[in-house]
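Structure in, sequence out. Go:
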């Protein structure tokens, strides 16, 4: 598969650790290490999404409609609070 060349910024200490791992033979290259790390993170997010979808499906099938609606309203309120908190934090997130 063809690779796409990009420019990224990393914390210097983190980059140094990756270079050290490459020098020790624990990774083929900095690019290879970053590509593998990205693939692992994407897979982790996908597994989490599938787990949440499964739990929601199970909860929805077992909860009475009015209880489900209350829980959904609460979750949406909490989600809105989280988004608000993140926007106030600026780029620190």
């Amino acid at each position: 598969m063809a690779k796409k060349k990009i420019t990224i910024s990393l914390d210097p200490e983190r980059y140094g650790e990756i270079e050290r791992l490459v020098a020790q033979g624990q990774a083929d290259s900095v690019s290879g290490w970053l590509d593998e790390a990205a693939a692992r993170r994407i897979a982790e997010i996908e597994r989490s999404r599938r787990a949440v979808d499964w739990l929601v499906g199970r909860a929805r099938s077992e909860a009475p409609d009015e209880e489900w609606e209350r829980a959904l309203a609460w979750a949406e309120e909490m989600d809105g609070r989280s988004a608000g908190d993140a926007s106030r934090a600026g780029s620190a997130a």
